[in-house]
Write a structure and sequence with these properties.
single chain, alpha/beta, Rossmann fold, globular
Length: 220
């Protein structure tokens, strides 16, 4: 009897935790989605000009060894903004966790190969995650207003973070990747949104690294 009561209570606890967790995940998703209303642009004509575009990093290759479409489409979007005089500089922010894995370096090479001048590209090697990339753009690179470049689902989370750390940011949406290609990313995004909400409202998270200030456009 005692074991039966214990198991019943344990079952209720597990059910309660599951319901609570699902509620937090759902609330985080809707909170972040609503934060981006009217701040994401798909048109070069409509998006206001900004001095700096923050290009959020991703791997150049997918797990099968082919070119990552997230990477390709973000590069396309950043180049379109620059060539249409919507931004003057591109700050590439990403992870460089090993000698062989370096998102900013790969993105810089791709931009240079497409005609973007080296003087217009700045690299943030400590953009270990979206939170760090957004906050470091302000804290290290001195930008309190800028355009964030990524896919729309990613922009929603990045803009939510920006709004809650005193940044005026808008997003330029890179081309979406086919759903079948990105299902794992979509699932992971739900948990990333929950973490973002916890970072802002509960954990008071700070970037893993800050460091000395870097002045964008100092040659001017």
């Amino acid at each position: 009897m005692k074991w039966r009561k214990f198991l019943n209570r344990l079952g209720l606890i597990l059910i309660s935790v599951t319901i609570f967790s699902a509620g937090v995940i759902f609330w985080s998703h809707t909170e972040i989605e609503s934060a981006s209303n009217n701040y994401i642009f798909n048109s070069l004509i409509d998006i206001p000009k900004s001095r700096v575009g923050l290009l959020l990093g991703t791997s150049k290759y997918n797990r099968a060894g082919g070119v990552n479409l997230f990477f390709r489409y973000r590069i396309d979007a950043a180049i379109s903004l620059y060539q249409n005089h919507k931004i003057d500089y591109i700050l590439v922010s990403g992870d460089n966790r090993t000698l062989s894995y370096n998102e900013p370096r790969d993105m810089r090479k791709a931009l240079l190969a497409r005609g973007i001048p080296d003087s217009a590209i700045y690299l943030d090697y400590a953009g270990l995650r979206t939170f760090d990339s957004v906050v470091r753009c302000k804290k290290v690179f001195g930008q309190s207003a800028f355009i964030i470049i990524s896919q729309e689902f990613h922009l929603e989370r990045a803009l939510f973070i920006a709004q809650h750390v005193g940044i005026y940011a808008i997003g330029y949406a890179a081309k979406n990747v086919p759903e079948a290609y990105s299902i794992k990313t979509s699932i992971r995004e739900y948990f990333a949104r929950t973490k973002a909400v916890l970072d802002i409202f509960i954990l008071a998270t700070k970037p893993r690294f800050l460091g000395d200030a870097i002045i964008i456009g100092k040659q001017e």
